């Protein structure tokens, strides 16, 4: 599928809106000195989609390896929280406060 979509003149349209939104969010956060100045929207986009996609695309194999359904509602929510924390720790200039459901950082 990836080889074929690369030939499509519309291929960039699939990720461009998301990268644009992330770029805007990063710019605002960088202006407020909340986000690291060295980040690129494309990097953050790839971090988010790769961690989200990997679990779902490999859910049957990972479930067999780990002995539990990684796609259960409980495990999916836990993974979402973990990925959110990982993204925040990547982009914030200060790490988030542990246990804060809103991802506030120590500033």
The largest sheet is: none
Q: N-to-C SSE series?
A: HHHHH
Helix count equals: 5
Rg for CA atoms: 17 Å
What percentage of amino acids are in beta strands? under 5%
Distance, first to last CA = 45 Å
Q: Which oligomeric form is depicted?
A: single chain
Low-confidence stretches: none
Shape: flat
Write a brief caption for the model.
By secondary structure, the chain is mostly helical. Helix content is 64%, strand content 0%.
Describe the structure.
There is one protein chain. The protein is mainly α and 107 residues long. It has helices spanning 2-5, 12-31, 41-57, 59-66, 73-91. The protein is flat, with a radius of gyration of 17 Å. The N and C termini lie far apart (45 Å).
Please tag this protein with its features.
107 residues; single chain; mainly alpha; 5 helices
Helix/strand layout:
Blueprint: H1 2-5, H2 12-31, H3 41-57, H4 59-66, H5 73-91
Helix pairs in contact: 2-3, 3-5
